[in-house]
Amino acid sequence: MRAGQGRAAVADGGFTLIEVLVALGLIGVVMASVAVFLTGAMSTTHRQAGRQAAAQVAAGAVEAAQAAGGAAMVANRPAPRPHLVNDVPYTVTYGTPAPCWQTTASGACAAASPAAGVRAAQLVSLTVTVTWPSTECGTGGTCTETATALLGATPSDPEFPS
Known about the structure:
Number of strands: 6
Radius of gyration: 32 Å
Strand content: 25-35%
């Protein structure tokens, strides 16, 4: 009798073609979902980087306005000016500065001057808008970031008497 005759064939322990195809299909599905997730994460990161740069440009514009003084902003509002950050043009536009008065009691800044005898600090409400081109914003490809600040209307900081 020859060796191997009359015996059942012993399995070689490998994978069948079906098992390999199923494994490849599962790997493909997992990789596709990971690719979708990573693409979305990269898009969000890029959009947030643009917003962060715009917020920094706006903060710099508010600081420059504060250094110039609120009264100077009311008298001579700067023209829109571009800033280049990472080869992206960010345009800074100053809103119309509005004088207001803040009393120690309310903390709110009112447009009307206070009644006689009421102590109040004269301030200037300033809005700075930063725009930049981006396809990730739904409004015609232009993104917007806005900052609002209260500036002292006098060259020195306002003081409230005790």
